[in-house]
Amino acid sequence: MPQPVFQRLPGALPSPGIPEETLPFLGALLNAPGWGVALVDGDSRLVWMNDLLAQLCGRPSALCVGRFLSEAWPGLAPPLSPLLARAQSGERVAEELVSGRFGEVGTLRHLTVSAMPAGPAGVMLLLRDTSARLREEAALRASEEHMRSIVEISCDGYFFHDRGQFLEISPGLGRLLGYYETAELIGRSILDCVAPEFRAPARDVMERGVEAPYELAVLHRDGRRIPVEVMGRHATFQGRAVRMGAVWDVSIRKAAEERLMRMEHFRDQFLDAAGDGFKAPLQMLHCDVLALQHAPSLPEGLTEQVGRVGQGVRRVERLIRQLLDFTRARLSNGLPVHPAPVHLGQLAERVVADRRTAHPGRDLRLVTGGDLKGTWDGERLFQLMDALVGNALHHGPVSSSVVLQLQGRWDGVTVQVHDPDCRVPPEYQGTLFEPFKHRAVCAADDGLGLSLFIVRQIALAHGGRISVESGAADGTRFIVWLPREDAPSTSGP
Fold this sequence. Notes:
Helix content is 41%, strand content 25%. By secondary structure, the protein is of the alpha+beta class. The strands form 4 sheets. Strands 2-1-5-4-3 form a 5-stranded antiparallel sheet, with helices on both faces. α9 crosses α14 and α10 (344-358) runs parallel beside α11. The longest helix is centred in the middle third of the chain and has 43 residues, at 251-293. The protein is elongated. The protein starts with 22 loop residues before the first helix and ends in a 10-residue tail after the last strand. It is an enzyme of class 2 (transferase). InterPro entries: BphY/WalK/GraS-like, HATPase_C_sf, HATPase_dom, His_kinase_dom, HisK_dim/P_sf, PAS, PAS-like_dom_sf, PAS_4.
């Protein structure tokens, strides 16, 4: 049966003049809002309590009504007493937070309490249990602090903003900007801390809600520009949707990039100057040798000597070129190439003609087939084929035949140099294309052990690959694969 609104107690004041038939409806009304309701007389004795309050304290109302608060709720009476005193004096107490042990098991609860005078009946108490909400808020605050700590560790600083106005700034970002009291920046525009040349793109990024990382320069308090990387995300700050930005100081990286650019510029200048400086005198020597060789009055005893001088000039020219290529490949992680339409068959004919002139009497053959046209760096591929042929001629017996074979297919061209009488030991094949390796066994007539390294770099620069096959039955075969311009780029040894 519904509990009466005011339960009569022996010796207590009669209930206010409310018709008896309305009491069940009033009890239901007082239970509905989710508040625990109690009537306390002037002696701090419980006169009445509703069902929700009985459930909250974990005791039937019959065990509480008629008792003093100190008896019914011993753990909650001390903090409630001052509020009751204020209400008994005529003050309306609205939603005060009270904490205490409540119920049979003495659970610590956090209650929102309102108290109001109830005339001769005493004081009306309204109690709502806010323990769960406070625990959730505490957990949320702890989680936010935890996330802030993680963000603070993972970046140099972070900030929250709403339409470009600072809402919160981490201490790390404050120090980066030269502000040790971050409150100085709260409410100010973000753009005030951005270098003028970056303000327009920064405003555009914020308006569009870009989440990809972007770079700009911020202004330190002393006017210095600091390059940073920023990444924004949607976030919630104090219950509203805002934006969060994480900031990384990239000054060290930018300085390293600038030093690297200066080093690369200096390297390119040095290599170009060295190449031009060696090229001019060598060309003069080469022209002088040709002039002497074609001179009609050259004594017969000097003809052989002039020929040796010409060979020496060409060898020095190859040595210098290989050293420059080696330096460029090591410093730039590869050789530069300048592709243009090329016919590999015509380049191969030049290679064979030059080598026949330098090695008269040697059996050097050229075999071609298929489409040999493509887009490559002709000068580099001439260097590649000349080095492979020179390597075979240098290491093979004088009586052996060297074959340069080119075979074109729809997706690329295969270049092979075959020497049936040359053998490469198996233990050397894995490191054959490394610089300065096995000079006595694998080096060509440059004597440095760089030619095969440079050949591999040329193949890789064209998206191709090079391999070697060597055995007792078929001699040694170097195989280079060169894709055409529209073929997928591949690389590898």
